[in-house]
């Protein structure tokens, strides 16, 4: 199994120029490439060419990209996806800016995921030789890198099975309607040693709940909140802590209404870590551990 | 200053230059069911009964279609009144979130609870 990590999130925005301030000045991502209707960004601690692509026209998710360890992983994943019953197609070098050959898969949930091995190497802003811990001219929040995405699907069990059997992810935390034969209504899955590289909860197929940036710690989360207040960012929830993943968080919306998150903390997980189970009656505590209440927005807004 | 009247309670407040309907109501101490506040989710969608609004910031045409606009739907989180307007909330009522702000900014609450 060769998926290494989430590589890029490609979303639609209604106004590219309004989004430029949010992603560039508020979050502090760096523009690496532009076309008339797209902007490509990277975080300062990311090595590859880009991690966020904004495309003008609507709202919501276009696709997620995951980088695999070896080019031969693509053949294996393509084969497993087809056996799973998914629609796949090969994407060739150049079909995505800076990205090499790959496999595009339409998930059971109708989301599009791209697997690739090669992407132009740019390097981080602190380099590899005697690096400083951070670049001194960060802008806004100064997000180092993307972390994960949460999407919605009508059949979380099928989705979990796809990510496990085809992509080699493992469930880290799961929410079930009840113990012993309850239905799965959410799963947080990892291909690294973080609590989630993808998560999904029961809902409409093809939709994005949020994608998240990783920050250092709780202090950085609070600092991000200050930047959001200065820049009139629409905040959904937080700062608070999750029960599920134990991460610290603020959820907020970009100028088009796509939900973003800044996330820190959590815990390490390993291939032999048994999954953690939550029951639906404790879902509010699992998602917002301190307040123990779900707001209406959090469970109803997807783009 | 254009006024905004919200039905079914008939609560009225004034707007400031460039202010959205939601911003005017929030400043006046009132709230209702909203989502992303950025025109992307459609949670706050309401019906424009009288008057016209502008959208200085683009909203997704999948959230508010041309057909919906033509039949009077609007997104209060992004809509800026051109003149006096009246809006009907959908399955919701305006709530007074701050009696202090309502008293300062003079929202007409004679027809609604505050």
TrEMBL record, chain A:
Transmembrane segments: none annotated. It is an enzyme of class 1 (oxidoreductase). PROSITE patterns: EXTRADIOL_DIOXYGENAS, VOC. Keywords: Aromatic hydrocarbons catabolism, Dioxygenase, Iron, Metal-binding, Oxidoreductase, Repeat. Residues 5-118, 145-265 form the VOC domain. Its cofactor is Fe(2+). The keyword Metal-binding applies. InterPro entries: Catechol_2-3_dOase (IPR017624), Glyas_Bleomycin-R_OHBP_Dase (IPR029068), Glyas_Fos-R_dOase_dom (IPR004360), GlyoxalaseI/FosfomycinResist (IPR050383), VOC_core (IPR037523), Xdiol_ring_cleave_dOase_1/2 (IPR000486), XylE-like_N (IPR054560). Pfam families: Diox-like_N (PF22247), Glyoxalase (PF00903). Its EC number is 1.13.11.2. It comes from the Bacteria. It catalyses: catechol + O2 = (2Z,4E)-2-hydroxy-6-oxohexa-2,4-dienoate + H(+). The keyword Metal-binding applies. One of its GO terms (molecular function) is catechol 2,3-dioxygenase activity. Homotetramer. NCBIfam families: catechol_2_3 (TIGR03211). Belongs to the extradiol ring-cleavage dioxygenase family. This is Metapyrocatechase. It comes from Flexivirga oryzae.
From TrEMBL, chain B:
Gene3D superfamilies: 3.10.20.30. InterPro entries: 2Fe-2S_ferredoxin-like_sf, 2Fe-2S_ferredoxin-type, 2Fe2S_fd_BS, Beta-grasp_dom_sf. It comes from the Bacteria. CDD domains: fer2. Keywords: Oxidoreductase. Its EC number is 1.17.1.1. Pfam families: Fer2 (PF00111). GO terms for molecular function: 2 iron, 2 sulfur cluster binding; CDP-4-dehydro-6-deoxyglucose reductase activity. Residues 2-93 form the 2Fe-2S ferredoxin-type domain. This is CDP-4-dehydro-6-deoxyglucose reductase. It comes from Flexivirga oryzae.
């Amino acid at each position: 199994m060769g998926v290494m990590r989430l590589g890029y999130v490609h979303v639609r925005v209604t106004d590219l120029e309004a989004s430029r301030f949010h992603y560039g000045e508020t979050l502090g991502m760096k523009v690496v490439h532009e076309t008339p209707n797209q902007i490509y960004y990277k975080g300062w601690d990311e090595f590859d060419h880009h991690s966020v692509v904004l495309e003008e026209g609507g709202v919501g998710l276009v696709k997620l990209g995951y980088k695999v360890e070896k080019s031969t992983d693509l053949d294996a994943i393509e084969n497993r996806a087809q056996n799973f019953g998914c629609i796949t197609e090969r994407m060739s070098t150049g079909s995505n800016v800076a990205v090499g050959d790959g496999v595009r898969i339409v998930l059971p949930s109708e989301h599009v995921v791209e697997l690739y091995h090669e992407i132009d190497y740019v390097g981080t802003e602190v380099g590899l030789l005697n690096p400083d811990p951070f670049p001194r001219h960060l802008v806004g929040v100064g997000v180092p890198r993307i972390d994960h995405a949460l999407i919605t699907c009508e059949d979380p069990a099928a989705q979990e099975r796809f990510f496990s059997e085809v992509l080699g992810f493992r469930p880290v935390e799961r929410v079930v309607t009840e113990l012993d034969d309850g239905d799965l209504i959410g799963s947080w899955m990892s291909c690294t040693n973080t609590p989630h590289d993808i998560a999904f909860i029961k809902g409409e197929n093809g939709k994005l709940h949020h994608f998240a940036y990783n920050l250092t710690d709780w202090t950085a989360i609070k600092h991000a909140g200050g930047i959001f207040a200065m820049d009139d960012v629409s905040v959904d929830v937080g700062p608070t802590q999750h029960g599920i993943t134990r991460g610290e968080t603020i959820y907020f919306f970009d100028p088009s209404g796509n939900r973003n998150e800044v996330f820190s903390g959590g815990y390490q997980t390993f291939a032999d870590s048994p999954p953690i189970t939550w029951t639906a009656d404790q879902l509010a505590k699992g998602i917002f551990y301190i307040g123990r209440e779900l707001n209406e927005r959090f469970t109803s807004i997807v783009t | 200053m254009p006024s905004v009247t919200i039905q079914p309670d008939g609560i009225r407040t004034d707007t400031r230059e460039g202010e959205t309907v939601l911003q005017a109501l929030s400043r006046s101490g009132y709230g209702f069911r909203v989502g992303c506040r950025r025109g992307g989710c459609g949670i706050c969608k309401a019906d424009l009964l009288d008057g016209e609004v502008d959208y200085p910031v683009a909203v997704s045409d999948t959230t508010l279609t041309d057909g919906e606009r033509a039949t009077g739907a609007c997104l209060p989180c992004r809509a800026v009144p051109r003149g006096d307007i009246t809006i009907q909330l959908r399955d919701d009522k305006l709530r007074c979130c701050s009696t202090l702000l309502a008293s300062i900014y003079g929202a007409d609450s004679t027809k609604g609870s505050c």
